[in-house]
Write a structure and sequence with these properties.
Strand content: 5-15%
CATH topology of the largest domain: Dipeptide-binding Protein, domain 3
Radius of gyration: 28 Å
CATH class of the largest domain: Alpha Beta
CATH superfamily of the largest domain: Dipeptide-binding Protein, Domain 3
Number of helices: 25
Number of domains: 3
Length: 786
């Protein structure tokens, strides 16, 4: 029976377990696992879905980075002490000008050895050059590449938005004459590239003739001789000094965090072949279509590749920092069964080098940790808290423009009503005041919460949008800035009435607290009727009465009848139908069933993950759970996403109910029901723009905290929900976690160069010793330079 179970599990997981300890030695006991010795030159991991592209200029998918961050080196890297250091590039001087709007780098070297490009067989294809950064610029801005990283570039570099607009005005393919689609695409790419190159300044060229466009400047579609005159850039986005082999990024505004962004492979150089537009079978979208069609600059090379089952990488002995690469082979499998219990099982069979012990996996939790959530007192001494990557902030995202199409014959009055009701601040305040978010969050924290009273909030409840430990100033984390601003807004205006619950202490914003449920200050700020406001204060500790008063304000703002209700559809992922979704239903049903509640929230479940992605792009839902992780070390990486025209614009559909005046730039609702929301979004946008321009880090973080307080607590554009894993989670690991970075940004966390493995699982004493040494290393590395 046991062997049959192993066979079925291996078939599900598509991971070989022949020769594993479980098969050869019987069940894996804790003592056997503690004594097991592994090969420290081979790392075994997994990926959650097949790689989507082998081009670092296309993908922004986190699973792709498990492969690409080892094949392609970023311009800068983050070391084990979370210090940003040279990667492919190194700063010239301190790397930036006085206001950090210009950042200058040269190509790095290791004792004279330069980084190189290699094909998949390991043949050298030439050194990495400063012009290869220009190649990346030309690649990501060209729409034909379908790059997912172009938005980051255009947001950062000077005149990036202008360049996007200029490209959008070029003729479409069907407007271009040609004998074939390929010929048309070559012409379109040439026109696009001519535009893009006018935003790149090349000084001290090695061969000036190379800068002359060999194509005909005059044709019936595009007059490239006019590029660079009126309407085109007043300054470059990128400057290349080809002789000195240096490059300078010119930024739209001050960006003290820009070096953290360069730890992403999205900003890595690209070889000449990627932008050889005359050869569409190897350039553009075709570059990186499979592992044989790309070049690599990283510490590893593809070895055996079958994305539907596994991908293995081997150490590149000719990599310019090969002496810092200790793991010689990376084997990544694609298990079809990726449940936490199966991942723990695959660690036991030595098919994974690292496996988290999830709070949702009761069997493994009790096997390795026992009761409680303290790894210091865990049943098995080989399990330790590990940084497993920054958990994304999951939040309730509102679709404000549900079925908003004035020309649609299918639009019903109730569709418009839903948008109008959701646009009211009181509606969103009622949801946050009356809904118990822990009902959903406890799915992820069930074992973490085992020693808490059942009424206590989930340990993984989140009350901020920007993740903690992203950026700090003089030891003060950005979330502490939010706590200070929160206390100013809600802690000091507390009425002297007994029973009033402002939750004004900023500590309430920490993970594991509930800053929203029955927060009287949040509710009071949305009650505009003076009589209702006084009734709310007089209700003291009678929360049922307070709920009824808040509901009356909702009815008044939305012009709803006394018994009228409005139903909203919450879109749930069908792949979670037996796990998270029952908890979500319980949460929404409990809220909807509150006495006299005018708001009803129904769970609309997709068939599976694919169907879920399809439905997200249709106007059939009002709410869903979204998640965001940081791209760089600045609050703007979060806060830019939720405003008018932000990254979530295609989901919150604010542009369907609110318009921006082309002359003044001011926002206005498409009808009166949306005017208040437009005003609030304008205030948020103004606060965000002010913060974006601040150079002093303390002032910058203070300004962002004001914007985040406005968005999350005063106006509640979104509702933070939970994180799915702790920032540090219990794990079984043969990786020396203190040799890899533990930062929230970039792709260096999945980069294995410089990382070491341990032959055996550490004991508690060994772990604590290494941790203490690492903490001292962090302290030393971050001491101010004399």
């Amino acid at each position: 029976m046991f062997k049959k179970l192993l066979t079925s599990l291996s078939a599900i997981a598509v991971v070989p377990i022949v020769g594993s300890n479980v098969v050869s030695c019987g069940p894996m006991t804790l003592s056997k696992m503690a004594d097991r010795t592994v090969d420290t030159t081979t790392y075994r991991g997994y990926y959650a879905k097949p790689i989507s592209s082998w081009s670092s200029g296309i993908t922004m998918q986190s699973e792709d980075f498990k492969v690409l961050s080892n094949l392609v080196d970023p311009l800068l890297i983050t070391d084990q002490y979370n210090v940003i250091k040279p990667g492919t590039a190194k700063p010239i001087g301190n790397g930036y000008n006085a206001d950090k709007t210009e950042w200058t780098f040269g190509i790095n070297d290791n004792n004279g050895k330069k980084p190189e490009w290699f094909d998949y067989n390991g043949n050298s294809m030439g050194t990495v050059k400063a012009m290869d950064v220009a190649n990346a610029f030309r690649y990501v801005f060209n729409p034909s590449t379908t790059s997912q990283t172009g938005g980051l570039w255009s947001m950062m570099v000077k005149n990036g938005a202008q360049l996007d607009d200029a490209i959008s005005e070029l003729p479409d393919l069907d407007e271009i004459k040609g004998n074939s689609l390929e010929a048309k695409q070559v012409m379109k790419n040439w026109m696009t590239d001519v535009l893009i190159k006018h935003y790149i300044q090349v000084i001290n060229p090695k061969n000036p003739d190379d800068l002359v466009d060999k194509n005909t400047h005059q044709n019936e579609y595009f007059d490239s001789s006019k590029v660079g005159t009126a309407g085109y850039p007043d300054g470059p986005s990128l400057t290349i000094d080809e002789t000195a082999d240096t490059f300078t990024f010119h930024l739209e505004q001050t960006a003290p965090y820009f070096d953290s962004l360069l730890t992403y492979v999205a900003f890595a150089p690209l070889p000449d072949m990627a932008i050889d537009w005359n050869s569409p079978t190897v350039s553009g979208y075709s570059y990186g279509r499979d592992y044989k069609s790309a070049l690599y600059s990283g510490a590893y090379l593809p070895d055996k590749v079958n994305p539907s089952t596994s991908i293995s990488l081997k150490k590149n002995n000719n990599y310019f920092k090969a002496d810092e690469t200790y793991i010689k082979k990376i084997i990544l499998n694609y298990p079809k069964n990726q449940t936490p219990s199966n991942l723990a099982f695959l660690f036991e069979t030595n098919d994974l080098s690292l496996a988290p012990i999830s709070s949702t996996d009761t069997h493994s939790w009790y096997k390795y940790i026992g009761k409680g959530n303290n790894t210091e007192t865990a049943k098995f001494g080989g399990v330790h808290d590990s940084f497993l990557g920054t958990p994304s902030t999951s939040f309730l995202l509102y679709n404000y423009g549900y079925k908003t199409n004035p020309d649609s014959k299918d639009q019903k009055p109730e569709d418009v009503l839903q948008n109008q009701v959701l646009a009211q601040q009181s509606t969103r305040a009622l949801i946050s005041y009356g809904m118990d978010r822990s009902k959903a969050a406890k799915f992820f924290s069930q074992e973490l919460d085992s020693s808490k009273p059942s009424s206590a909030p989930s340990s993984l409840l989140r009350n901020v949008y920007t993740t903690p430990n992203l950026v700090s100033d003089n030891g003060k984390d950005y979330v502490e800035y939010i706590q200070d601003e929160y206390s100013k807004e809600f802690g000091q205006s507390k009425p002297s009435t007994s029973g009033f619950n402002p939750k004004g202490d900023g500590v309430i914003l920490q993970d594991g607290s509930d800053a929203y449920k029955e927060n009287d200050e949040f509710a009071l700020k949305t009650i505009t009727d003076p009589q209702l406001k006084q009734q709310f204060i007089d209700a003291k500790e009678n929360y049922e009465a307070k709920m009824q008063i808040l509901m009356k304000q909702v009815r008044k703002d939305s012009k709803l009848g006394e018994n009228q209700t409005v139903s909203f559809n919450f879109l749930a992922n069908g792949s979670d139908k037996t796990t998270l979704n029952p908890r979500l239903r319980d949460m929404f049903d409990s809220f909807s069933n509150l006495k006299n509640n005018p708001i009803k929230i129904n769970v609309m479940e997709s068939q599976d993950s694919g169907d879920y992605s399809t439905i997200q792009r249709t106007p059939t839902w009002n709410m869903m759970i979204a998640g965001w992780s940081p791209d760089y070390a600045d609050p703007s990486t979060y806060l830019n996403t939720i405003g008018y025209g932000g990254d979530y614009g295609s989901y919150n559909n604010l542009t369907k109910i609110i318009s921006k005046d082309k002359t003044t730039g001011k926002l206005k609702g498409n009808n009166k029901a949306f005017d208040a929301l437009a005003t609030d979004l304008q205030s948020y946008g103004d606060a965000l723009n002010f913060a974006n321009k601040e150079f002093d880090i303390n002032t910058r973080l203070t300004s962002y905290s004001k914007a985040e307080t406005l968005a999350l607590y005063q106006k509640q554009f979104i509702l933070p929900m939970f994180i799915k894993t702790p920032v540090e989670a219990p794990a079984l690991s043969y990786l020396d976690q203190f040799t890899r970075p533990s930062v929230a940004y970039g792709t260096c966390f999945t980069r294995m160069s410089g990382v070491k493995m341990t032959p055996k699982l550490w004991t508690k004493e060994q772990y604590n010793q290494h941790k203490a040494e690492w903490e001292q290393g962090v302290t030393d590395a971050n001491k101010p330079k004399q």
